[in-house]
Amino acid sequence: MRPNSIPGPGSGDQVIVIGGGVSGALTAARLVDAGFQVTVLEKAYIGNGASSRSAACIRAQFTVKETILGMAYSTDWYCNFMEHLPHPGDYYKPVITQNGYLFLHERADKTHPWCREAAVMEWHAAQKDVQLQQEMGVPTEILSASQVHARWPHILEDQIIGATWCPTDGFLDHDAIYHQGFAYAQAHGAQLHQKHEVVASKTRGGRIRSVITGDGSTFEGDWFINASNAWAPRLSPLLGGMDLLIEPQKRYLYFMTPNAPIMSNEEWRQLPMTIFGNCKRRGAYCRPEGDKLMIGWGHPTQPETEFADEDQDVIRNGFGPSENGLHNLGYAALQEIRDFAPTLGDCGGIKHATCGFYDVTPDHNPYIGMDTQLENLVHVCGFSGHGLMHAPVTAALVEAIITGKIGPQGQVYLPAPFDQHPLDLRRFDPNWEKRISIPERNVL
Ligand SMILES: Cc1cc2nc3c(=O)[nH]c(=O)nc-3n(C[C@H](O)[C@H](O)[C@H](O)COP(=O)(O)OP(=O)(O)OC[C@H]3O[C@@H](n4cnc5c(N)ncnc54)[C@H](O)[C@@H]3O)c2cc1C
Which of 155, 214, 344, 430 has the lowest CB atom count within 10 Å? Predict the structure, then answer.
């Protein structure tokens, strides 16, 4: 870790959070609880970015210790959402649906020829990952093909060698999270300024003194949090900060309505988030979204570094819901699903697509740490499609950074019962080049 990346405490209590998504919301809420004076600046309106466009899934089935523990903490935090962010008078509905995550691993002889070797390796690696997840207290299990089929009869037993299954994984209510996060922060003294785009900063002695918004207003602070996600690599240099290796990449979600029921309502409502094959060029996924099926698939898209806000919703050629044919990604994802679950893959047509930007880092792990040029700028970005599930632990790490509650080797302890292992903050350091050699698997 860089010697200057662990700041000392007592550097002042005025915090400016830039960005009105889940990361900004939960960070603001956490910091008001810790006694900070918080101001949030949002260029448009809350939820203008990826937070309102997300598939909103959450899982602790990861391959890196920090992420597993962090996501176990986030899951628990979301399960106790209203205890963390009570807001008198509000209608309460849970923000997490724990239908579980089911990673299907296919038989080498059943997959595409170019996936065969990878399928074998991925299955071995997945079983080791389950061991690590269990050691971190996550209740992931390995299921045999027959166990999977007995439980979810629409999945072909013959197609798979087994699966990993974590019943506490699931999906989130993304809009409720940032609305409630900001409402709580405001009720506890935070100021939220929408339509305030940060366009410049005034710096002195290696610190930001103030930021300036498009209308000419100036906001002074002791700490500045870059929670601007896909805009983060543009914002950082505007503030005088470091270059961030983040590419805004478009990701699409497709929504299918079954023509006729293929299972009972109850079974449909309880369908897990399912990932169909785990090796490269497989990995289409789906989960229920009311009476629809939400479908997605990781796929290469050109980075759109200078995107405008409106571009977030622009569906590029080959990605539209109505273009049937193999060049259409949604249709191709359905074909993939059909290999594993024909009744699901054949039950209807895709009617609707939405999209938004991932903020992708080279190793698909986020940047949560101090800037190299400015000693009071903290970056929380580069979530690479995992920022919603990350937001509670992101907020906890920001608090640790600005209060200095970090061990000499970058250790941060989450609250009990997640304090059995420290999180190594270096894992998230935007300037720690070694992290790039530790690729994250199971990228969606
Ligand atoms: C299709 C899709 C599927 C996804 N699926 C999942 C999933 O299953 N699980 C999961 O955990 N995550 C998922 N994600 C990712 C997740 O949605 C994001 O990581 C998360 O919402 C990021 O939240 P954020 O608050 O950091 O950023 P955002 O919600 O993008 O908010 C950033 C905000 O910063 C504001 N801003 C930008 N520049 C400035 C400026 N100069 N001044 C002031 N304000 C500024 C923007 O207007 C925006 O509102 C998905 C994303 C997409 C697009």
Answer: 214
pLDDT at residue 436 above 90? no
Whether ligand 1 lies within 6 angstroms of the CB of 295 is answered as no
139-150 pLDDT per residue, tens? 999 999 999 999
Structure tokens at 265: 């309502």
In the chain, CATH 3.30.9.10 covers 101-167+247-360
Q: How far apart are CA 286 and CA 307, in angstroms?
A: 28
- The answer to whether the pTM exceeds 0.90 is yes
Could you tell me if the CB of 40 is within 6 A of ligand 1? no
Specify the 3-state DSSP secondary structure of 14.
strand
Residues of the chain with CATH 3.50.50.60: 3-89+173-245+362-437
pLDDT digits (tens, 9 = 90+) for 388-425: 999 999 999 999 999 999 988 889 999 999 998 899 88
CB 422 within 8 A of CB 411: yes
Classify domain 101-167+247-360 at the CATH class level. alpha beta
CATH architecture of 3-89+173-245+362-437: 3-Layer(bba) Sandwich (3.50)
CA distances from 328 to 76, 320, 341, 442 (A): 38, 7, 20, 23
- Ligand 1: nearest atom to the Cα of 356: 53
